[in-house]
Design goal:
InterPro entries: DUF6116 (IPR046119). It holds the Pfam family DUF6116. By secondary structure, the protein is an all-alpha fold. It has a domain at 2-56. 57% of the residues lie in helices and 0% in strands. Helix 2 runs antiparallel to helix 3 (42-56).
């Protein structure tokens, strides 16, 4: 039964942009801190939202200290 509810809800929430998804997750987490279990299956929903948030995090490579781009080429192991 819970998969029938959580699947479509997580799919809909997965289409939200990162700031809105973060706001929904933070609001739901704050609600569960003050009211114990306000919505049935809220724990599973928070785990799914946390997974979606972590999937949306973008890593940016740090620029080199001197500001130059990396050198193109191949690396070979020599013995």
């Amino acid at each position: 039964m819970r998969y029938l509810l959580l699947g479509p809800m997580l799919r809909w929430l997965g289409r939200l942009s990162y700031p809105r998804l973060f706001a929904v997750t933070a609001a739901l987490f704050a609600l569960t801190l003050f009211v114990p279990d306000p919505i049935p299956l809220v724990d599973e929903l928070l785990l799914g939202l946390g997974t979606l948030l972590l999937a949306r995090v973008k890593r940016t490579d740090a620029p080199s200290p001197d500001g130059r781009p990396p050198i193109d080429g191949q690396a070979q192991r020599r013995r």
